[in-house]
Amino acid sequence: MVQVIFLGPPGSGKGTQSARLSELLAVPHISTGDILRTHVAQQTDLGQKARRFMDQGDLVPDQLILNMVQERLDQSDAQKGWILDGFPRNVTQATFVESLVQRQKAEQGSENADANGLSTINLEVPDEVLIERLLARGRADDSEETIRHRLQVYHEQTEPLIQFYSDRNQLSVVNGNLPLDQVTDALKKAIVA
């Protein structure tokens, strides 16, 4: 079973690389950002609550995300594996994913019902490169001020996950500031390792 979590700041290439690996590995690419943007566009209750946080560049609170992720990981196409892009974003969410992985393995009768086998990959890209990339994509929510705030939030709230997964021997670091195909090749090696 392939279970991959992509860490990395906004603009590091998580979405692009997740989509590529999803095709190669034949498992769903699950992006909480895409799911949230869909809810916002459809003006669901969750979308309206989430929009307030997203517009300010803040992380959407855990309680708005956890049930949505659990529901998605319980769907039939995710039973053989998945790639999570943009989640977890903090240690509380990481602990939640760990418990979901353990539950899934136990339900499938796996002898080893712990979270081993989970691969976490951190895409490293310098902040100034990220700012250039995000400004170039031209989204309405990508002003330089908002981007810098999102990077600050990432460094404060999400970077602790690097240590969390490193302590569990579940972390690989990949240079995300290489040409696209080189990053994909490095990711394939990290997942197989």
Automatic annotation (TrEMBL):
Residues binding ATP: G11, S12, G13, K14, G15, T16, R137, L178
InterPro entries: Adenylat/UMP-CMP_kin (IPR000850), Adenylat_kinase_CS (IPR033690), P-loop_NTPase (IPR027417)
A GO MF term: ATP binding
Pathway this chain belongs to: Purine metabolism; AMP biosynthesis via salvage pathway; AMP from ADP: step 1/1
Positions annotated to bind AMP: T32, R37, D58, L59, V60, G86, F87, P88, R89, Q93, R139, R150
Subcellular location: Cytoplasm
Record key words, sorted: ATP-binding, Cytoplasm, Kinase, Nucleotide biosynthesis, Nucleotide-binding, Transferase
EC id: 2.7.4.3
Transmembrane segments: none
Residue span of region NMP: 31-60
Reaction it catalyzes: AMP + ATP = 2 ADP
Nucleotide-binding in keyword set: yes
One record GO biological process: AMP salvage
Gene Ontology cellular component annotations, sorted alphabetically: cytoplasm
Function: Catalyzes the reversible transfer of the terminal phosphate group between ATP and AMP. Plays an important role in cellular energy homeostasis and in adenine nucleotide metabolism.
Entry similarity comment: Belongs to the adenylate kinase family.
Domain notes: Consists of three domains, a large central CORE domain and two small peripheral domains, NMPbind and LID, which undergo movements during catalysis. The LID domain closes over the site of phosphoryl transfer upon ATP binding. Assembling and dissambling the active center during each catalytic cycle provides an effective means to prevent ATP hydrolysis.
Summary of subunit composition and partner proteins: Monomer.
PANTHER family to which the protein is assigned, alphabetical: NUCLEOTIDE KINASE (PTHR23359)
Name of this protein: Adenylate kinase
Protein source organism: Lyngbya aestuarii BL J
